[in-house]
Design a protein that fits this description.
Oligomer: single chain
Largest sheet: 5 strands, parallel
Bound molecules: adenosine-3'-5'-diphosphate
Number of helices: 11
Shape: globular
Strand content: 5-15%
Order of helices and strands: EEHEHHEEHEHHEEHHEHHEEH
Helix content: 40-55%
Distance between the termini: 43 Å
């Protein structure tokens, strides 16, 4: 890393999503790399604050040195493709920063993602508004048609191919990297090594940066394993026990997603082997 002026710079890497697939884990791991700085808050510039302009966007970023990559994550970018504005805006932004943008998408078995999304919303509503949600079936099944309700956002977010078509129109294969949400949990080191390569980072991570926390049943992180035993885990709302779902509903969701998953594997060139 070159010595030089510490200042705020626009991101050159963006985690587009997907919500509840492991976006926080990816960001927090990458921020341990000495050549990466990342905005801790979710920014939602391209699909929420765009009118505030590029200077505002830069202001949201942490200070960085020349040679360091600035990264941000806003988990709903990936699915904000309805009027392609988000994608187009990001494309135009990539030209402003001379086309150097790299996009990361964490994807996870869409059935598990839907369960995670439902569990998250249920907990939030209960805590903040004292509202009790109906069972998951109410939101993901259409009782009249006895089929999966594909207009429900809990379901639709997992149809990754739907959104991918739009991103692929604007960005090249070399600019998009897909991270397996499952591998991020069970083969963290291997998965993060692929991300390091994609971002052209100097190899930094070793297995010593990760350990499996038996109590949390998820990996936790050791930022400086050779210097200190200090470690951290993601907060309790990440890696939570999901609410129960009947086998019938789960199988309906799996059957619904299967053809979409197959198409997604084709477009992104990677088979995630979701059941
Ligand atoms: P669950 O809580 O449903 O298990 P996001 O950060 O995009 O909201 O994703 C949350 C998901 O990240 C969690 O969903 C969990 O499965 C996954 N995850 C990946 N690595 C993790 C880690 N090291 N600690 C906790 N959760 C992790």
């Amino acid at each position: 890393m070159k010595a030089g002026e510490k200042k705020k710079r626009h991101p050159t890497a963006i985690i587009l999503g997907v919500k509840k697939a492991g976006t926080r884990a990816l960001l927090d791991i990458l921020r341990m790399h000495p050549n990466v700085v990342g905005a801790t808050k979710e920014i939602y510039f391209f699909n929420g604050h765009y009118h505030k302009g590029l200077e505002w966007y830069r202001e949201q970023m942490p200070l960085s040195l020349p040679g360091q990559i600035t990264i941000e994550k806003s988990p709903t970018y990936f699915t904000s493709t309805h009027n392609v504005a988000t994608v187009e805006r990001m494309y135009r932004f990539s030209k402003v920063i001379s086309g150097e943008i790299k996009l990361l998408v964490v994807v996870r078995d869409p059935t598990e993602r839907a369960l995670s999304d439902y569990t998250d919303t249920k907990m939030r509503l209960k805590r903040h508004e004292g509202v009790e949600m109906e069972p998951i079936e109410t939101y993901v099944l259409n009782k009249v048609r006895n089929a999966v309700e594909n207009t429900s956002s809990i379901v639709k977010t997992g149809i990754y191919s739907l959104y991918m078509e739009k991103w692929a129109q604007y960005f090249t294969k070399e600019q998009l990297h897909f991270v397996s949400g499952e591998a991020l949990v069970y083969r963290t080191f291997e998965e993060i090594t692929l991300v390091e390569k994609f971002l052209n980072l100097t190899p930094y991570f070793t297995r010593k940066h990760f350990y499996f926390n038996k109590r949390k049943r998820f990996p936790c992180f050791i930022p400086n394993p050779d210097k200190s035993k200090k470690h951290f885990c993601l907060p309790a709302n990440k890696g939570r026990k999901h609410t129960t779902i009947s086998n019938i509903t789960k199988e309906l969701l799996r059957a619904f997603y299967r053809p979409h998953n197959e198409y997604f594997y084709q477009i992104c060139g990677k088979n995630f082997k979701w059941p």
